[in-house]
Amino acid sequence: MTYIIKRDGRIERFDEEKLKSSIMAAAREAGLLDKRWVSAIIQMVAANAIAYARGQRSVKSQTLAEMILEELDNQGGQISNAWRAYSKPRP
Length: 91
Known about the structure:
Pfam families: ATP-cone. By secondary structure, the protein is mainly alpha-helical.
């Protein structure tokens, strides 16, 4: 089982669906859900992040976020920019 170490030190069980839904929410926020390629990008990025996390006993949330952003940047900036904005800590 893999655990995520949050920025504030909390530890949570890795949740694949939470990861996928956060990328999907960013795509929605960017207005990209009607594009066919968005689903493929989400699946690919999520699969790579999930495979990475499963190979670890624990992973820092920041490390996982950086990996996801790098992959999203490689696919085009719209989703990665939206995900950056979506995943920013809210005051």
